[in-house]
Every structure is written in structure tokens, then in C-alpha cells.
Design a protein that fits this description.
The protein is an alpha/beta fold. It has 16 helices and 12 strands. The strands form 3 sheets. An 8-stranded parallel beta barrel has the order 3-6-7-8-9-10-11-12, surrounded by 8 helices. Strands 1-2 form a two-stranded antiparallel sheet. The protein has a two-stranded antiparallel sheet with strand order 4-5. The structure holds the ligand O=C(O)c1ccccc1NCC(=O)[C@H](O)[C@H](O)COP(=O)(O)O.
Length: 377
């Protein structure tokens, strides 16, 4: 039986879609909808006129898969649940299916995050987070800080990353004091900071984010997290985040739209990250996107190529970005003033830099080396 993969029953997508259309659409995408949740909220058979029979887990999964496939998203939100339970006499068993192993590191991170968030939500439900937000100071203007820095220096505004480790590079800095590093970055001329909050793969934490905010650092803070659920946005805001990252290879368009709306309500900025042309085109078609990050690192293979920024900003895409006045951030693999000049020439007005700064003994001074001159005041 091991390794046997069952084919799912064919099911016309329009039929699933019609039966599910009574919900807010965002519920149908991977981040927010579970049949269990529907049942908990009383959305069950007969409870809604447009929902003519109970929506099964399999149907929802099929619909989600269709959405994800149609948008070219390769990262699966969680391991396939496998074929349905089988009964032989009194015994119940599930056939093991193929594909229960993550296909790459990004998928592994996402699967882990999905479980982690489910546990965190149990401890801090959304209503308690919303209550906590009443006492949190308002979010700072992340995009404004980048534009100001760009105008002031004539160089891309810097988002300096507080990053202890990464899956591709291992430990980047042993003597890691997040607050001291953040203060050094601010002194060195960073416009904004990016703080890794993932513990398992990056050795980051929400405590780091909160400590940096509470230490009086004025730079707006990006919560560098793998967001799979809207709940994480509220949690990040409660810890002092001013901006969040949405990764287009992980999130379907509907989730991105929904999360952007939540951020607008919370006064936060969204950095929507793309790596290839298809993701860029999807994101450019989403209303309300103001900040796009082009990651030069392929998060599935770790390959880094700063030409990627240039490639994605050429021709009509670059033109559309200028028309829409979208601010573009060049991300990853930037080490020298020549690298900065290269991505600036390609059209970016901001850069996100981790490794090349964090590895230096004085990460603040490293900013001048990276830009080829002092960018603090
Ligand atoms: O950095 C990684 O190894 C990594 C692996 C899997 C998912 C994301 C990852 N990094 C996130 C980033 O893209 C970078 O932290 C960020 O752009 C800064 O990059 P760098 O200047 O090259 O440290």
C-alpha cells in the first residue's frame, strides 16, 4: 500500500465555486478557510441558501489547488492530507500518499509556519490581539521613510536586516544583540529595519522586534515573517511592526488583496515580494500595491543573481511600475557600491540588505562601505 497515490474524483470546478460562493472569497484561499472553521461559524448544510450541500474538506482542497495552480504557485500551504480514510472491517487507515515531504526549503518553512501559527492562535485568539492593539502606538510610515531617504541621499533608501542566521548561510553573526545592531543601523543611516521573527530557520523572534521598538529606535520596522494567515498581521502589529512581508510565491492573489486591506486598516505597509515575471505580473494587477520587493534570491534553490532585479524591471513592467508610482525594493545579494548602483540603475528606490551588513564588526559603519559614502544625515 505504501506510496500508493489515489486519484481524486473529477469534480467540475464551477460547481465547487458556485457552492462556495456564499462565503467571502478570501475564506476560500489557503490562508483563511477550513471546513472545520465553517462548521464552527455555523456555515453548514442548510445554513445558507447558496450553499446547497455541505462543503467537504476534499472539495475545498480541490478548489484551493485550482486557484493555486492557475496562479502558478508552487508552494503548498501544508502537506497533502492524503486520500480519504479507508475502512476494512473494524479497521480504519489512511493510505500513505506521495508528496508528504516538502519539495524545497520554502515549502518546509511554510508547512512549519502553518502548524506554528495554529498553536499561537490557540494561545492568543484574534479578539484578544485586537484588544491589545488599542494600547499600541500607531504604525510609522515605512514607505514614506524610504522615499525620504532616497530623496535625501540620491541613493536607494536602506532597509537594513536584523538577521542572525539563514537557511542558506547558517549563522551569520555569533555575538548577536538585536537592539545594539538596530541602533547601529539607525545611526549609520538606515531608513527602515527588517527584523526576522522566525525562530526555527532564522533564529529570530518577536521578542527581538518588540525589544527594538521599545528601545526607542525610530526607523519603521518590517516584520520579516512567512505570513500564511491574517492573524499574524495583528500579532506583528501588537509587537510593534509597521510593515509586513507578503511572498507572492506562497500567497494567492486573493490572500494578498485581503491582507493588504487589513494592513491599510491597521496603518501598516505591505512589501509584496516577487521573484519572477509571472509573480510580478500577478502583483502588478492587484490594486493597492504600493511597495514591491524583487528578491534576487530564489527561495527554492537559494541561487542569488542580482540581474533578476534588472530583468523584472525592463520594458512594459518598468513602465507600469512608474505609472503606478510603485516603490521597488531590490532584495538580497547586495555587497558593494557597484551592486547598489546596478540595482538603482535598473529602477529600484530602496534596497533590503542583510548578510553584507550583519557580518561586519560594526554593522552601522558597514552601511557607508556598502553605499560608498556616508548616508547618515
Ligand atoms: O536567506 C535565506 O537563506 C532565505 C531562505 C529561505 C527563505 C528566505 C530567505 N531569506 C530572506 C531574504 O530574502 C533575505 O533575508 C533578505 O532579502 C536579505 O538578503 P541578504 O542581503 O542576501 O542577506
Amino acid at each position: 500500500m505504501e506510496g500508493l497515490c489515489l486519484t481524486l474524483q473529477p469534480f467540475p470546478s464551477s460547481s465547487i465555486q458556485r457552492r462556495l460562493s456564499a462565503f467571502n472569497l478570501h475564506r476560500l484561499t489557503r490562508s483563511s478557510f477550513t471546513p472545520l472553521r465553517a462548521q464552527k461559524s455555523g456555515i453548514t448544510e442548510g445554513s445558507d441558501s447558496a450553499l446547497d450541500s455541505k462543503v467537504t474538506e476534499q472539495e475545498v482542497t480541490m478548489y484551493q489547488n485550482e486557484v493555486v495552480e492557475s496562479q502558478g504557485i508552487k508552494i503548498r500551504r501544508r502537506p497533502p492530507t492524503g486520500p480519504p480514510l479507508h475502512y476494512v472491517g473494524p479497521f480504519e487507515f489512511r493510505l500513505q500518499n506521495e508528496g508528504n515531504t516538502p519539495r524545497n526549503i520554502l515549502e518546509e518553512i511554510v508547512w512549519n509556519k502553518d502548524k506554528e501559527v495554529a498553536q499561537m492562535k490557540e494561545r492568543k485568539p484574534l479578539y484578544s490581539l485586537k484588544k491589545a492593539l488599542e494600547n499600541v502606538p500607531p504604525a510609522r510610515d515605512f514607505i514614506g521613510a524610504l522615499r525620504d531617504a532616497n530623496q535625501r541621499t540620491g541613493l536607494p533608501g536602506l532597509i537594513a536586516e536584523v538577521k542572525k542566521a539563514s537557511p542558506s548561510r547558517g549563522i551569520l553573526r555569533e555575538d548577536f544583540n538585536p537592539v545594539e545592531i538596530a541602533q547601529a543601523y539607525e545611526k549609520g543611516g538606515a531608513a527602515c529595519l527588517s527584523v526576522l521573527t522566525d525562530e526555527k530557520y532564522f533564529k529570530g523572534s518577536f521578542e527581538n522586534l518588540q525589544a527594538i521598538r521599545e528601545a526607542g529606535v525610530k526607523c519603521p520596522l518590517l516584520m520579516k515573517e512567512f505570513i500564511v494567515e491574517a492573524w499574524q498581521i495583528y500579532y506583528g502589529r501588537s509587537k510593534g511592526a509597521d510593515a509586513i512581508l507578503l511572498i507572492a510565491s506562497v500567497l494567492p492573489d486573493l490572500d494578498i488583496k485581503y491582507m493588504i486591506k487589513i494592513c491599510k486598516i491597521l496603518g501598516m505597509a505591505t512589501l509584496v515580494e516577487v521573484h519572477d515575471e509571472r509573480e510580478m505580473d500577478r502583483v502588478l494587477a492587484i490594486e493597492g500595491v504600493e511597495l514591491i520587493g524583487i528578491n534576487n534570491r530564489n527561495l527554492e534553490t537559494f541561487e542569488v543573481d542580482i540581474d533578476n532585479t534588472k530583468k523584472l524591471l525592463e520594458g512594459e513592467r518598468g513602465e507600469l511600475i512608474r505609472q503606478k508610482d510603485i516603490l521597488v525594493v531590490g532584495e538580497s545579494g547586495l555587497f558593494t557600491p557597484e551592486d547598489i548602483a546596478f540595482v538603482q540603475e535598473a529602477g529600484v528606490k530602496a534596497v533590503l540588505v542583510g548578510e553584507s551588513l550583519i557580518k561586519q564588526s560594526d554593522p552601522g559603519k558597514a552601511i557607508s562601505t556598502l553605499f560608498g559614502r556616508d548616508v547618515s544625515e
